[in-house]
Amino acid sequence: MQLFPGFEQEYLKRHEQIWPELKALLKEAGISDYSIFLDKESLTLFGVMQVTDEEAQNGLKDHPIMKRWWAYMKDIMASNPDNSPVTAPLELVFHLE
């Protein structure tokens, strides 16, 4: 994901005040251990999460709470026409167990 310049503190603030209903929705969809990292130089956001139910997680895009969150965040980050954040898949090149 990509943050717009100058919105680092606002992004942090909004996530510190994440809506309880969004937090509950993510957990209901089988998402846990969710972290978002920011590369301050490029303003690239990198999310890592554990997902126990891929199908439930894929259904989040249609949920009204998720759509409301995306609309709330679109002014500070690159977004698609449906307000979802612009994302890019990453290729795993190394994993240490």
TrEMBL record:
Keywords: Carbohydrate metabolism, Cytoplasm, Isomerase, Rhamnose metabolism. It comes from the Bacteria. Its EC number is 5.1.3.32. The keyword Cytoplasm applies. Pfam families: rhaM. This is L-rhamnose mutarotase. It comes from Ravibacter arvi.
